Amino acid sequence: MAYSWFKAFHIVGFVVWFAGLFYLVRLFIYHVEANQEPEPARTILKNQYQIMEKRLYDIITTPGMFVTIAMAVGIISTEPDVLKEPWLHFKLLCVALLIGYHHYCGRLMKQLAKGECGWSGQHLRALNEAPTLMLVVIVMLAIFKNNLPTDLTAWLIFGLIVFMAVSIQLYAKIRRRNKEKELEQLNQVPQAQS
What we know:
Layout: H1 2-33, H2 41-78, H3 86-114, H4 121-127, H5 130-144, H6 150-193
C-alpha cells in the first residue's frame, strides 16, 4: 500500500514540477521582452514578472521538485532491487540533469532581477524546450523500463528536437513580422492626421 501512495504523490510532484519549469521560463521570456516596451510600462512589467517568477519558483516549482524526489526515495525504499536496473540509472541521470536545469533557472531568475541576464527571448524559447525532452525520456523510461524501443525513441526525440527548433524559428519570425506591421500602422496614423 505504501508503494501506491508514494507513486501517486510522485506523479503529482513531477506534474507540478514540470508545470512550474515550463511556465517559469515563459515568464523569463516575457521579462526579457518587456525591455522593448516604453516607460513606464517597461518597469511595471519587469517588476510584475519578477514577483511572479519568484513566487512560482519558491511556492510551486521547488516544492514540486522536493515532493518528486522524496516520493521517489519512498518508492525505491519499498522495492530496493529496482536500483540494480539499468533503466533506472539512466532515469536518475535525466533527473539529475533536470535538477541542474531547475537550479540554473533559479540563477537566471536572479540575473533577470538584477538586470544582468544576457539571454534573448529566442534563446529562452529554446531553453524552454529542454524540460519537454527530459519529460519524454523520463516517462518513456518509467513505462518501458528495460524494454525501451530505442529505434522509435531515438527518432521520436530527434523529431521533437527538429519540430521545436522549427517552431521556435517560425514563431520568432511571425512575431517580428507582426511587430513590424504594428509599427508601420502606428507610423501611418500620425501621417494621416497631419
